[in-house]
User: What shape does this take?
Amino acid sequence: MLRTLAAELGVKVSSSVAAQAKAAKVLGCKKVVVAHPYGAREDARLIADAERYGGEVLDVMGCGKLIKDFGRIPVTAALDMGRALMRAHPQADSIFLPSPHWPVIEAIEVLEREFGVAVMAASQACVWDALRLVGVDDAIQGYGRLLRAY
Assistant: This one.
């Protein structure tokens, strides 16, 4: 679909799912934990996404929010859930923060430093993929290994 759309429009095209898949591969994510903003009814879908990206999902945790309430998610939620998941699963090599609609940016660098793991957030992956598609490969500091090293 993305190739067809790119050919039709004459520009490079990506999607959140495509960007996350590329990012997970580049980061080498194998044993992952998933922290997300949704309720438990979305766990299976997000686990399936992470598995499609090549990871074995060790655990998943959500905030229990509906998308209309994402603006009320505390900015510390991703950090708190990432920490809880890593404490429960220290063998994980990656934390996935799917959905580009909640505040995760400030958690990425902190979690990577604190636990020595890769953190792949949907919003971060979308920006990274868009920049790389148009030939911008600058190292961007402060937003995780993905933007800094790849």
Remarks:
- DSSP finds seven helices and four strands in the chain.
- The two ends are 25 Å apart (CA to CA).
- The chain has a mean pLDDT of 95.
- The first helix runs from residue 2 to 9.
